[in-house]
Amino acid sequence: MTSTLETEEGAESRTRSPLRSLKRLLRQAGYFRMSPEILKAINRFQPELTYGWLGDPIWGWTLTRLAAKLRIPYVIHFMDNHIGLDPENDWAARLSMTLFRRQVNAAVHHAAAVFAISDAMAASYGARWNRPILAFHGVMGTETWPQPVYQGDNPVFEIAFMGSIEQSQFYGLLDVAKAVEELNNNGVPAILVLYLTDYYRDHIGKGFSAFHHVTIRPHPDANGLQVALRRAGALILAYGFDRETLRYYQYSFPTKLVPYMLSGRPILAYGPPSIAPIAYVLRGGWGLVIKERSVERLAESIMELIKNPAECARLGTLAHEEACREHDQSKVAAEFAEALAAAAGCRLTAATG
Question: Which residues have CB under 8 Å from 302's CB, separation 6+?
Fold first, then answer.
């Protein structure tokens, strides 16, 4: 099956022009300029630190230039492995990546502190730049997610996915869709539900149109998140097994994972064990992991969950407990505030908490 993503990327590659290459290089020196009114407001606020993401040149220059203008330290928080990706096979892309990596190296060298999105990223980047890097990943207010009772009496077993679907997740979810079709062909009623924003529905929805047991629902807002996840029999975390997946997601931490854990529903993780999201589930032991690409194994694992509600409840409880220990917002927020205060060269006051 040819994906919409493949078609769009192929077309973009064929239509690449010198003008597009020039625009890529011009963006290399771009940054967001603050209006005089915004700068006045910032100066009135008297910040002691600038904190920001560094995922592309524009954000990098904006962060470092603003910090220099205000004469305050800055903190970088890496969210994805942008610097580890291979550039497109285009001279402008290769030059752009070389310049971007130089920019990142300089920004990291002068940063008061550097944070990462996962333990794996913190360890790798720490070795790369020979400096300590702290890991801060997903958090939620766990007090609003009490331990639920698992209900396994739904006549149609629902496997739910929520969040963004980039190319890697698309290929992983295609395998899940095939496994669900296989189960239904064998008389086992199951459905894959994709909770998507309008953007992802429009961009990848057609890729699942051939499947009779895939349903797309609107992505819930914060108030509806808990209800949507808890109506499922299991939650799926899916990735492809291609080289690009290994490079891009080797240090990733998906935003969806914490609400997945707090939902109390069993998590089925499908993907290579060398990427951080799958390794995290494996290490914790609170999810069912399929480490090799296999539609047959996916179908078997879903069947295991359908047959064993007690195991579903056990895995859901373990994941909920782990989320409360490692991802509680109040606990992590205090550690995060301490790290920022240290980077700013000041101490937290009692009122900061």
Answer: 157, 159, 179, 180, 183, 190, 234, 268
pLDDT band at 195 (very low <50, low <70, confident <90, very high): very high
- Considering the domain 143-326, what is its CATH architecture? 3-Layer(aba) Sandwich (3.40)
The CATH label, of 3.30.70.20, 3.40.640.10, 3.40.50.2000, 3.40.50.720, for the domain at 14-139+330-352 is 3.40.50.2000
Cα(111)–Cα(107) distance, rounded to whole angstroms? Answer: 6
pLDDT over 80 (residue 158): yes
Structure tokens at 29: 């020196």
The Cα 51–Cα 67 span in angstroms is: 9
Torsion sign across C-alpha atoms 102, 103, 109, 113: negative
> What integer best gives the mean pLDDT of the chain?
89
Question: CA-to-CA distance for 276 and 283, rounded, in angstroms?
Answer: 10
Mean pLDDT for the stretch of residues 292-319 = 96
Q: What is the pLDDT of residue 49?
A: 94
Angle at 294 between CA 289 and CA 298, to 5 degrees: 55
- The Cα–Cα gap between 111 and 78 comes to 12
